[in-house]
Amino acid sequence: MATLGKIADTHALECADCPIRHRAVCARCEPDELDRLDAIKYYRSFEAGQTVIWSGDAMDFVASVVSGIATLTQTMEDGRTQMVGLLLPSDFVGRPGRSRAAYDVVATTDIVMCCFRRKPFEEMMVRTPHIAQRLLEMTLDELDAAREWMLVLGRKTAREKIASLLAIIGRRDAALHLGGKRGPLTFDLPLTREAMADYLGLTLETVSRQVSALKRDGVIVLEGKRRVTVPDMNRLLEEAGDDSDGGMLS
Amino acid sequence: MATLGKIADTHALECADCPIRHRAVCARCEPDELDRLDAIKYYRSFEAGQTVIWSGDAMDFVASVVSGIATLTQTMEDGRTQMVGLLLPSDFVGRPGRSRAAYDVVATTDIVMCCFRRKPFEEMMVRTPHIAQRLLEMTLDELDAAREWMLVLGRKTAREKIASLLAIIGRRDAALHLGGKRGPLTFDLPLTREAMADYLGLTLETVSRQVSALKRDGVIVLEGKRRVTVPDMNRLLEEAGDDSDGGMLS
DNA sequence: TGAAGTCCTTGACCCAGATCAATTGCGGGA
DNA sequence: TCCCGCAATTGATCTGGGTCAAGGACTTCA
Fold first, then answer.
1. Which nucleotides along chain D are within 7 A of a protein C-beta?
2. Which one, of B218, B146, B240, B167, lies nearest residue A78 by Cα?
3. Is pTM, for the whole model, over 0.85?
């Protein structure tokens, strides 16, 4: 059974003030559509480490991550686990039309989710093309990310995997905080070494070793264990095995 | 530049007789919607081995696979390749709103595709919720498949990977040809050893060895190199590391 | 001020799968 | 029928990353 999240004060947040208003599944909604969504929404918060829902559990809601980070993981009977999704603010959880969770959802940091009861949401989706359109777009983006990730899992070396993950997190962070600034990039790793290992299909020891190696080689600078500075993003992208001028052709 | 596929005779196939009519992106369309789709569609065929489109190329159409099998692959500068999609009849190629291909698309067998010019298709999608709904559903299915695949790539052994792939192909084939029959299952592998390796993040030598091992251990029976019989599906699923009663809870 | 818990690092060793290198088998064309 | 070319198999060897094990660095709590 899913650990119950705290039901946050519903009045704490109006859609108009919502930090993910323009990137979440509701991004394209008109004011009247937003009002209708508002009527079926409620907030829940979870603490770092809490499991939001277990794979196979009944799931009577869908949700957007408002703040914090969560992970989607799959586990085999013998305990091997693979992360299959990293949920950042504005990302969507759950699948319309599916009543049971297909993956474990775990809060990596403290998180707040904006939940919608599933049935009303599904009904609303039929009548509100703006929601379905946005959800399609987001799902296509996730599919692209999953395919990029498949290349990482299937063909990259441990060092390239770590560099790829750092590049993904760094880029995402840069986009969020300091829109398109040049120069050295600094950010906090939102994942433990173990979570990084689950993301990359490695062991935590290998993650630790490769992070140390990238540090030793000057590709990254560490303050403590979590704060990362990338002096030269192109160098990092080279290490990741990515085309450093990714997709710049034409 | 993409190799030009033969433009097949447009009158060869009416939507009403189309083998993928009820599973493709047009599955939910009403007769009048189908008529409008019919007006912007054309068929193209490609021979086994032909590249349908190269990653980065301009792509002015989207399409459904009518018959045959194609693959989606990503390639690194040094030549390492990873398959990121296996396109079977009824699967959709291309992304509305994207003008350039993100992956190489290669015909593995002779294929026929039902193409729609991208712009008219996009316009139609806005006005025809049935198409967008179906595309969302198909994209969510693909995302689920990609996540399953991520577990395979990240955490399974070579033997488990091969067993997983055989199970996926076998199940798909069973669903297609002999709806839900019991007993031994026989099908043709639509992939070379090399393509299987690209799918699973292995070398072709390892694929060959593990196929031989599964044959030696009686998990599968081979006639020639491509025809596979699975005497006991549960045994194969065990070898794949999957819960043999997958998702049967409640 | 210490004890316990988490997370992380580092070392030593090992093995699954990669790499390199022959062969084998088979379908098609002259 | 023989030969060519491609797909596949199989063997020998190597190695990247897993496994096992021993600390180290912080944080929290008493």
1. 7-12, 16-21, 26
2. B240
3. yes
